[in-house]
Amino acid sequence: xxxxxxxxxxxxxxxxxxxxxxxxxxxxxxxxxxxxxxxxxxxxxxxxxxxxxxxxxxxxxxxxxxxxxxxxxxxxxxxxxxxxxxxxxxxxxxxxxxxxx
Length: 101
Known about the structure:
Layout: H1 6-26, H2 32-39, H3 43-56, H4 63-71, H5 75-82, H6 88-97
């Protein structure tokens, strides 16, 4: 593995995270439940992890603010524009594989 200095590693990780957010923004057709069923995490998980990181540093960030950072808009707006009705198959898969946080 390449050894980067810590500053470079953090910059690369941040760039990868920004690219992931951009990709998810471009793929609003992929629903959170689909992400959960396939990968075990979704946009809401990313927002929660973002908030956890801010909390760990003592930085003020609300759940709504962290979601807006991940979704690129207020969560309610994203839901209204992009969220579809969940299928019975997707719900059944989610219940079977529900994360145990």
